[in-house]
Amino acid sequence: MSGLKGGESLEFIAHPRFYDSTDQMTFLPLLDNLRRIRVLHLLDISLQSSWATEIQALTYLRYLAISTEEFDFQWVSHLLNLQTLRVVWKDTTKRIKTSPAIWKMKKLRHVDIQDFSFTWDDNDRAIFQETSAVLPNLKTFGKCYIYLGDMSPEFWWRFPNIEQLKLQFVEPESEYVQYYLVPTPEIDMPNLEELQLQSLEVGFSHTISTYESIGWGSCVVFPSMLKDLSLHSIFLTEKLVSSIARLRFLERLKLRKIYFKGEGSFWQAGYSRCWDVSDYKFQALKILKLKFVLMTEWLSSDSEASFPVLEKLVIDDCRLEEIPSSFTDDVTGSEFISCRNNAKPTSSLAP
């Protein structure tokens, strides 16, 4: 690389794993000789904030993947050809904040950032609310934190062709109690119904602390065209299950860290929760994955009635005492049942 003359270029750079964090000061300046590169993959090292200066001239970039301690959309907003942006955020105590600069990047198709939020200064918020800018090419976007108590503006209508969205809702916490009790003020949950999404991931931040409430998960309105749905850190109510069952095209459902309302807490002796799906039909569901779903009993009178086309069932780290026999008898095709807990099927599992 050091022998390259000015103006010469590479179509692709993948940062080798043998580079470590001590090499970035010697590596990054070399990018000045590679101004026409289109792909820059730097996930194998942790970059300091100086990376933003070093990539200023790389205006042909279409793909950028970085692992960094600092990030601001303003630093990459000049990359008008960028289609894919991936950012791994090293400091889990902070949140990346966005800015109106993102609306300049009209060619963006995929934004994959570990954790960030649409929160900004008052001036930036005013700019956001006044502009009608959209990102027409954006297909995938996340993982974005939505602060329900802070009136985070709904931004997804600015992504008219979005197909995959990852959201983490942050509920307002009590000023006095950090665990077990949280007030439930009247707030409007974001409406996702009008989006043409095919894949959606939704989670909540304070499920443990809201254990005695039903949580906000039941208030989410899902897009009707969903094929892939992932829910985590929520209470599974009848209303929520009914909403999921109405998704006629849903093929993959993943439930992780799922709670049920009732007397007693899951860490107490005698804990018992039942998930009854006998009255529901998930007509297109092919894959069902359950991880840390705190149910002790699962009722399904006939899996063919509730899950007529189910091909794959994965159960991982649940409280389930036994698997309904209808699943072990009726789930066919590319069958795979994994039980990493104490659950036992009421009939023999197929090999």
Describe the overall structure.
The chain is mainly β. It folds into two domains: 12-268, Alpha-Beta Horseshoe (Leucine-rich repeat, LRR (right-handed beta-alpha superhelix)); 269-351, no CATH class. The chain is 10% helix and 28% strand. It contains six helices and 18 strands. It has helices spanning 24-27, 51-54, 122-130, 238-245, 303-306, 325-330; strands at 12-14, 39-47, 63-68, 84-89, 96-97, 110-117, 140-147, 164-170, 199-204, 228-235, 252-259, 274-276, 287-293, 297-299, 312-316, 322-323, 337-340, 344-345. The strands form three sheets. Strands 1, 2, 3, 4, 5, 6, 7, 8, 9, 10, 11, 13, 15 and 17 form a 14-stranded parallel sheet that branches. The chain has a two-stranded parallel sheet with strand order 12-14. A two-stranded parallel sheet has the order 16-18. The protein is elongated. The N and C termini lie far apart (53 Å). The model is unreliable at 1-9, 174-186, 208-214 and 346-351 (pLDDT under 50).
